[in-house]
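Hi everyone, sorry if this is the wrong subforum. Our group has a chain we'd like a structural model of before ordering constructs, and none of us has done structure prediction before. Sequence below.
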Amino acid sequence: MNFKSICIEPSQKVAWITRTIAAALLCGFAFSGRLWITSRLFPLAPVSDSLPAIPPPMDYGLMFLLAGLLLAIIMAAKPAKFILLFVALAVLWCLWDQTRWQPWLYQYLAMLTGLGLYAGKNDQEALNCCRLVMICTYFWSGLQKLNINFARETWPDIAGSLFRFLPPVVRNLPAFVVLSIPLLEICVGLGLATRRYRNAAVALAAVTHVFILVLLASSGENTVVWPWNLAMVFFVVMLFWQDRQTAAPALLFSKRAFHRLVLLLFGLMPVLSFFNLFDSYLSLALYSGNTDQAVIYVTPAVIDMLPAAIHPHIWQQTSPFFLDINRWAYGELNVPVYPEPRIYRKVAEQICSYAMNSPDVRLRIKEKPNPFTGARRSEYYDCGHLQEVGR
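Answer:
Right subforum, don't worry. Here is the predicted structure as tokens:
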């Protein structure tokens, strides 16, 4: 059989992509179960403190309802109603905790919404919404990584577990070599938008995701994005391989309202993140080195007042002792912390409450690095300052 001759109808592509997204979301929920409940140590970060608390077992009920809707999406012949209900409930549930605004969930919800709105009515439009999300994801993800901090810190941290067996000359690649990685990612996004280079971009994207999976598997970390990378390979092949008809104008310019919203959110808004006017993770900055970072400095007396489950995430080998917020998020929720100052302050407020507002608690927020030098400016907060900011 000639693979190039295989032709899959748009309606069949829509069905397969829809079920793949639902299955990938189920895997994401399974790998990050505690992210979706309220009975946990890592503090919730609601969009407003005026939102009412959702106590257990209601939180578990909502999580299982979302999982049930995903199963219905997989099994139903016409899942549009289940899709739109799932998207509405998922978005609503995410208002109670911004840590849930992970890039993979953001992407899945956008793609599902396009499929739910247009599938069966205009399958090509449904697919084009998904194509636009994919193109923007690769483009902005690459552009976010074009900074010296990615070459010096982020890439060595990601690749260290696999590259430790290789010679030093391979482990310590020059910055200009490492920065070819985001350039290739940008090329994938641009190539997918063209008809001439589309197949080459698909092949490059597939190889990239397989390599990322090897890196992740070698470290055993961040299992929640393993199914995301597998799903991305399927998406890019299903949406773009041998597609000679869909031109860039059809992807960028549409009269459909949701398609325009996708272009705004995924295509235009990310540029604002470089001016701190749009969130980093909503701008596809995962693993970019181009996000705010934070730690909470504590003393031995403060450590003794914290729950024992937090202690493994505190650096106690040498002074100063500090709580690594990102490690805590990974350790309890299996996702990275949502890297915005307001979230770091919310976490620090929780530590202050455990420590009875001790002056020995200090939050340090390191701002996004200078893309050329990697230098970061720092802001410091004690418990008193956090109370003033929260008013």
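For your construct planning: The longest helix spans residues 10-31. Residues 1-5 have pLDDT under 50 and may be disordered.
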